[in-house]
Design a protein that fits this description.
This protein has about 110 residues and is an alpha+beta fold. Helix content is about 15%, strand content about 20%. It is built from 2 helices and 7 strands.
Length: about 110
């Protein structure tokens, strides 16, 4: 069984990649080097900046856990998902856990 997963950088800009922070966690910009003062040291090594939306793959100030497990969405995508899942009554609305992953000081 292979434990080392191939890192698939979907967004490549100035040499940095996007990493999933933990199993089922949000995506976040990650880099070996500190690209700018926005980047903060990451405990597991390297530096991290903004979170990245699972849906549109755009960097976002904060991402929210979507109804579908393991998916982290930015504001607009979360809205869309919410409108999408309408019709199942208030249960769907309650399932939308507006859980901010935190901004990590990435302003
Ligand atoms: Zn998005």
């Amino acid at each position: 069984m292979k434990t080392k997963q191939p890192l698939r950088p979907s967004v490549r800009k100035s040499g940095n990649a996007v990493r999933r922070m933990w199993e089922g966690g949000p995506l976040r910009q990650w880099s070996e080097k500190r690209e700018s003062s926005k980047w903060i040291p990451y405990a597991a090594g390297g530096y991290v900046a903004q979170y990245v939306c699972d849906q549109c793959r755009r960097p976002s100030q904060g991402v929210y856990r979507a109804i579908s497990p393991g998916k982290w969405l930015c504001g607009p995508c979360k809205q869309r998902e919410r409108t999408h899942s309408r019709g199942t009554g208030h249960a769907a609305a309650a399932a939308v856990a507006v859980e901010q992953a935190g901004c990590g000081g990435a302003e």
